[in-house]
Amino acid sequence: MHVFTRKYWGGGLALAAALAGGIHWAAAQQQIITPSARELNKSFDADASQWAGRFEHEGRAIYDKRYEILDYMHLKPGMDAADIGAGTGLFARLMAQRVAPGGTIYAVDIAKAMVDYTAKMAEEQHITNIKAVLGDPRSPRLAPNSVDFVSIIDSYHHFEYPKDMLLEISKDLRPNGVLMLVDFKRIDGVSKPFILNMVRAGEGTFTDEFRNAGFELIEERDDMFPDNYLLRFRHRGAKVE
């Protein structure tokens, strides 16, 4: 599929070398990871309380716009939803209020320190409908067909195995469910240096990756933030309600 040879950061060279060496196509696919994400993710194994101050403060775009982002989720009482790459649980806590009573929020992260922190904060704030889940780089470790909505907020560029993770999310999302992505605009010569260094690809590439995983784009917002965009997807061919 073209997305591997054309757009993955370093993936094209790795794949070409693998195929030249006679490695089977399926095996070559498994070698494609996001090396920059792996290095970034190591830092989240530290005490998560230090990250709360960096993630949950005025001046951070997604924090300042958190309620507007929340409104775009269109959550309702009784819905089950997952925030993947939940970090300190900021959005999971807000989402839990919207789906109560009767709904559950799965706060998924691959850093145990983050998962433990989210569970601790939910307990301290008496939020009983959050389940903190330790995922792994290839899977959120949710049950198939278990959620009506998935959010990935400033986290997709951290995915080490995007293809594997999206395929697992596709299985976990119910047939008429919605997946929402918020990530950084990465434009050479325009974006801030920290974005160019941290984020492996831009909006077009990420959109292609979601489409390759069986999703279709149903809404996009590029005007909510100066440095971020918001995209909403559903399963390709899903019934429109």
In short:
The chain is of the alpha/beta class. The chain has 12 helices and 7 strands.
Report how far the terminal alpha carbons are from each other.
31 Å
The CATH superfamily of the largest domain is Vaccinia Virus protein VP39
Overall tally of structural domains = 2
Helix content: 40-55%
Taken from the alpha-carbon principal axes, the silhouette is globular
Q: pLDDT under 50 segments (min length 5)? A: 1-31
Keywords:
20% strand, Rossmann fold, seven-stranded mixed sheet, disordered N terminus, alpha/beta
Structure commentary:
Strands 3-2-1-4-5-7-6 form a 7-stranded mixed sheet, with helices on both faces. It has 241 residues and is an alpha/beta fold. 38% of the residues are buried. It has helices at 2-6, 11-20, 25-30, 35-42, 49-55, 61-64, 66-73, 90-99, 112-124, 162-172, 193-198, 203-212; strands spanning 81-84, 105-109, 130-134, 147-153, 173-184, 215-221, 228-235. Mean pLDDT is 83; it is low at 1-31. The chain contains 12 helices and 7 strands. It has 2 domains: 1-32; 33-235, Vaccinia Virus protein VP39 (Rossmann fold). The chain is 41% helix and 20% strand.
